[in-house]
Amino acid sequence: MSHNGHPASTPRTSWKQPRLLHFRLPSLFKSHTSSSTSSFAAADRAASTASGSEAAPTPDAASISSAVPLTYPHTEKELPLAIQIQNLQGSDGAIHEDYSEAHKLFRDHAGHAPKGVLPQTINPDEETVPGIVHPGSTGVIYCSDRAMANGFNYANSHDWANLGQGAPEVGEIPNAPPRPTSIDMPTDSLEYAPTTGVKDLRTAVADLYNHTYRVGKESQYTFENVCIVPGGRAGLSRVAAVVGDVYTSYQIPDYTAYDQVLSAFRRLVPVPTALDPENHYRFDIKQAEKDIRTQGIAVIIASNPRNPTGQVIKDKELSDLVELAREGTTVVLDEFYSWYVYPDGDEEEDYGKSISSAAYVDDVDTDPVVIIDGLTKNWRLPGWRICWVIGPKNLISALSQSGSFLDGGANHPMQLAAIALVQPEYVAVAKVALQKHFKMKRDHVLKRLHELGLEVDCPPTSTFYIWLNLAKLPAPLNNGLTFFEELLKEQTIVIPGIFFDINPSHRRNLFHSPCHHFVRLSFGPPLADLDKGLDAMERVLRKVRKEGLRNFGHSYKPSLTSPIDLTSLSHA
Ligand SMILES: Cc1ncc(COP(=O)(O)O)c(C=O)c1O
Hints:
Keywords: Aminotransferase, Pyridoxal phosphate, Transferase. This protein is an alpha/beta fold.
């Protein structure tokens, strides 16, 4: 234990703790402050907590809270200490992830040690299986593991608020068609289904897209343009498996699985581009054109609407993107949130519209536009694992091949049951109900965040995610990983932003990630769960006001080492 009662941090096995901060802090503080003794002491202590140092004095809570008028929202003037600490995390690099307990926990997890920069931490378990390289835990698994370490388990999951949940609520919602409760299982359905899917479902999906997006267009989708796949990630993997030896571009932040799925297929070369927060994370078509010319990008992949920012490419921008495809670049659009687009107005006629690139395709067999969607989000049936890829016939035939060695096709009885759910009449009712209900939840969460002083820079116009910037909170709460750990203590799960960065393990200092200050909040769960999570945030912020920052940023539970049951947490 350290002198201040915090557990001494676990020594790193792979490199030495930097001790730089002890020497640099005082001079830094002199240059930033008007020499308030309590601020100095508090900041010094904050640094000592983070570094595990024995050197700095410990101020009492009262001295911190009197030095830090923690009202939210706050201005720079109101939060001198917070600003001072944030300054320390600035470009001079004086504060590093090594001083953060939450980041140490992350680095200690298998596969997350910095790669190619510092010696890799060896996990003895991995070495017992010759030739196996641990891919590193995905965001979902890491967050689940940390939740378990904090007492989450299957039996008590209802006591927790899971705002990390990347799935919509699956129960009844007002005015939606009733939830399916049983399925038929004719004897034929006990056979394998074709790897491209059951023909009647493929036809029904093609008809739905023609009905929704292609009325009056000469070129229409047929079953040959549709491949049924066992889930969205299976669709992505099937596509990635048939991408050749080419540069494939994706953007940050985006759905976490792209990084892992793309890197699993070693022929293609993933090329990330960072989206600009100043520009509301907009997809920059001019930049894409330039990248195609200068870097030879052959394939672009993006979620649209976008997870985690809740922004959407639509109208002319979407039509320009499809045009870009026609000029010779394959554009793969993951349209899983295509119904989760919220109208500005609240009249009946404002609801029921969805967004798909299918509306801008000229020729369904020659425009290289690939759409992935399915029952997971729009139909609120993530457990069914029935999804589809839509594109030119030749692509579908290639996907049939990759499906035959990757996944063997989607569940046969569920495909048959899905046919009734993709009928236009069913969809029309389900879509309106979904948009009304989720818009209500979005507005509710945004209002409560505003009341807590947590302003959302970029409110979501689509999806069920809020990309929340914590930069204005006092350190260490202003980074996603620490905020996540603090909420776990309050039985609430959110997803730290760094999981939406490309391969964060490759960064020398996670504090430099563009997603460092962010968390993703999901308003997928039912309203009562959302309130439970927001209440937890309120408690954390109240505690800061009352006790200052001394109780934050440390004393986290060690990760579990035994195999853990992840079945009760849903996907990110
Ligand atoms: C953008 C996006 N695409 C695909 C998926 C995964 O879909 P599935 O659960 O069907 O694999 C998700 C799930 O979170 C997602 O957010």
